[in-house]
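Have a think about this chain, tokens included, and walk me through the fold.
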Amino acid sequence: MELFDSHAHYNDEKFDEDRDRIIKEIYKSGVTKIINAGYSLGSTKKAIEIADNYDFMYTTAGISPNDIDNFRKEDLKDIENLAKNKKVVAIGEIGLDYHWNTENKELQKEVFISQIEIANRLKLPIVIHTREAIYDTLDILKNNKCNKNGVFHCSPLNVDLIREGLKLGFYISFAGPITFKNSKNADEVIKMVPLDKILIETDSPYLSPEPLRGKRNDSRNVKYMAQKIADVKEITLEEVARTTYNNTKVIFEIKEK
């Protein structure tokens, strides 16, 4: 059984002391594909540098809504140039976040739309971060079509988002919160999403699933999300692993060697 972690951050400083060892152990555990996600200019460069060391790792290039404090217009051109790298499979993570940032909503929207335009020029999908900004996010996506669609990463467990996101053709990626004991709507939204539209991720090193909450997360834990989906949909873990692996290859147009 092979698993695909569709969103992790091995460019994070929490992996600086043991990154190579952990990544090699992850591969040996059966997680044979990883997308190492960028979220700023610096983290995108680092993600690409790391992915160049591993045949089974890919990256995204983008500026997240939480990383635009010192935004310059030139950064968008730099992201576009980085996204031409053969390891980059999407523009992301991009989107809106009104939990951490409420004073710069218009700038968030502007940067989000600009990066959708980059994705369209480069014929890439997008990876969306949205937090407490669901309706503005959906409004932008409806009025600024991404030609290759994309993924709601670490998708909020919001029924309206799931319904409208699926209508727009997006995939839904589930992370650790679906396993949390206090998680609302997890079973309901998992049931809403057709199996052929589900991805799984860890968002490492954050959001460790039950029973590992509070510990540093890594891609070996993606199996907990797969098991939760299998339990809710009453299918085998192997079917979830196989289907989500293939789904991730499809949306990011990853060809097996």
About this structure: The two ends are 18 Å apart (CA to CA). The mean pLDDT is 97. DSSP finds nine helices and eight strands in the chain.
